[in-house]
Automatic annotation (TrEMBL):
InterPro entries: Sos7, Sos7_CC
Coiled coil: 52-175
GO cellular component: kinetochore
Position of the signal peptide: none
UniProt keyword annotations, A-Z: Coiled coil
Stretches for region Disordered: 180-200
Pfam family, one: Sos7
Alphabetical GO biological process terms: attachment of mitotic spindle microtubules to kinetochore; protein localization to kinetochore
Segments traversing the membrane: none
Domain Kinetochore protein Sos7 coiled-coil intervals: 17-91
Protein name per UniProt: Kinetochore protein Sos7 coiled-coil domain-containing protein
Organism, as annotated: Verticillium longisporum
Amino acid sequence: MALRDRKLPRTLEAEGELFSKLRFSYVEQVTKEKFIRAIVGDPPHIVTPQENLELEKQNLAAKTQLKALKIEVADMVAELEKRGRDLSQRYDNVRVEKVKLQELPGQIEGLESRIAELKETQEPGTNPYINLPLAKTLELLDDKRRRQKELDRELEQLQSRVPRKRKEVERLEAELQPLEVKKQTSTTAAKDAKRRKEAALGGVEDDLEERGRWLRATEAALTNMLELK
């Protein structure tokens, strides 16, 4: 395809040059023939200045028309070249597709053989979805997609609630902070009161224990005195 695309412009250019040469030769030959006839004619054809002026006007008009025709022809040639390249590309694509289509039956046959082998080697009950017909498979696929959409929608709703829940948590934390400080203060005060109470009770017990020892000693002394009597 690339080689043909490169050859096409050169071929058209060569044909255009050949046509230009042939046209120039034709115009030259016709002009010579008219000039010779005018000279050797009887009587000879004499051109006056007025006729030359008229001929120049006609020649100018013809040149203008020829220039417009050249532009039109150039546009047509460009369009034809473009269409030629498009057709060449389409032809190559069709040829490639034709080759693929020729190979397709063999590929289909190979795939069918492979599917048959897989069905034979598959253990019963391994995957029940594999043996489903196409309609059931499509129905199951639609159901999976529908459930996926529902889950996505629920997830989106939950995500939309996250900012509000976060604000509620921040508000609760702000409300709990003074309570936590108050709790710590109360706990510290309770521990301090308990410590003071235990200290006070400890002093009374020491005094009672000392008085008990004195009473026991006194009782023992009196008992000894009575026994001696």
